[in-house]
Specification:
Blueprint (H helix, E strand, L loop, with lengths): L3 E2 L11 E4 L9 H8 L5 H9 L4 E2 L2 E2 L11 E4 L2 E2 L11 H9 L1 E4 L3 E6 L15 H8 L7 E2 L8 E7 L2 H12 L4 E9 L6 E5 L2 E6 L2 E6 L7 E9 L3 E8 L6 H9 L12 H8 L8 E8 L8 E4 L4 H13 L4 E2 L2
Parallel strand pairs: 1-6, 10-17
Antiparallel strand pairs: 2-5, 3-4, 3-5, 7-8, 8-10, 9-10, 11-16, 11-17, 12-15, 13-14, 15-16, 15-19, 17-18
């Protein structure tokens, strides 16, 4: 088959390609399937191919979140791919950092306390991410795939499957609402009440080449529940409960409430962030603190927790000293 090109080619070589989905690829999102198949193609280009209907499954147009089934036939248009390059190597300090950040590992699953500043995947100007570094750290492990994602600037619990069957099972749990995700976040300003539920659809858009998210009726349903943990004069520590899994969901829902996340360069409050920098906050205050997954085979449910990193704990302690909390909930 042809159609995946690395340079000038004849009309025949640039013909449309058809790929049949193998049984072990069933359940995979079509955008992730394409990213693996069209390595080196920018993610924005992959989404453009989907929007334009140039990629089709069984003859029909599909969106990026469509999940493939065994035996599906995927139409791939002719595209020019950059010449393959040797994968970038994560430096030794990153490998040591990841090794020490593993919260749990067995033959099916790895749970990582992802450091802030490390992307989940390489690409789009990022030489390597968690997956590439783990493959370097465990060269004999044949399969590593993300069960879900965390923003590059978010730290905390990240699920990584070591088997295709585990990936499918955990994706089913995500779709069924079985997996529980809790985040710690510092919001700018005093949040009213002890609990705020935000149900606001989210839509992706581009501005100046940057991918962003906004509340829009044209978007996809999303629900976040904010539980107040501590109140300060000009900030609120919350536990955010995700009832859906949209890109930048907590950040945009917090902004929608009028209380953006502290240290958020995309959706935040620059004036409030400048004051918090005086207390030592140098990053986005968002941490995936707790994950609960359902049984895998005959296992019992598993709970994973990642402690708040020093880069967030220290400014929080300074905030407590400078502005004692007006209320605290265990």
């Amino acid at each position: 088959m042809t159609g995946l090109n690395t340079g000038p080619a004849s009309a025949r070589e640039r013909a449309v390609t058809y790929v049949d989905v193998a049984p072990d690829q069933a359940g995979q999102r079509v955008d992730n399937f394409l990213m693996a198949r069209l390595r080196g193609l920018p993610r924005t280009r992959v989404y453009r191919l989907l929007r334009r209907g140039e990629v089709r499954v069984n003859g029909g147009r599909i969106g990026p979140e469509h999940r493939l089934q065994a035996g599906d036939r995927v139409r791939l248009p002719p595209v020019d791919l950059p010449p393959p390059r040797a994968p970038a190597q994560a430096p030794d300090f990153r490998l040591r950092q990841l090794e020490s950040a593993i919260l749990f590992e067995n033959d099916r699953l790895l749970v990582l306390d992802k450091p802030a500043g490390l992307a989940c995947h390489g690409g789009s100007g990022v030489d390597f991410g968690v997956i590439e570094a783990l493959r370097q750290l465990r060269p004999k492990q044949p399969f590593f795939e993300l069960v879900h994602r965390l923003d590059r600037d978010t730290s905390g619990c990240l699920l990584i499957a070591k088997r295709r069957s585990t990936l499918r099972a955990l994706h089913e749990q995500l779709r069924g609402g079985v997996i529980e995700k809790r985040y710690l976040a510092l919001l700018v300003g005093p949040l009213a009440g002890r609990r705020q539920r935000v149900a606001a659809a989210l839509d992706r858009y581009e501005r100046g080449g940057e991918r962003l998210v906004r509340v829009s009726d044209a978007g996809k349903p999303a629900v976040t529940v904010f539980h107040v943990r501590e109140r300060f004069a000009n900030a609120t520590l919350v536990e955010a409960e995700l009832l859906s899994g949209r890109t930048h969901q907590i950040r945009v829902h917090a902004q929608h409430l009028g209380h953006p996340l502290a240290g958020d360069p995309k959706y935040g409050d620059p004036t409030a962030d400048a004051a918090l920098r005086e207390l030592g906050l140098r990053r986005l205050f968002l941490h995936a603190a707790r994950l609960v997954i359902g049984p895998l085979d005959d296992d019992t449910p598993r709970h994973f927790e990642a402690p708040l990193p020093a880069a967030l704990e220290q400014p929080l302690e300074r905030l407590r000293s400078a502005h004692p909390p007006t209320a605290r909930t265990a």
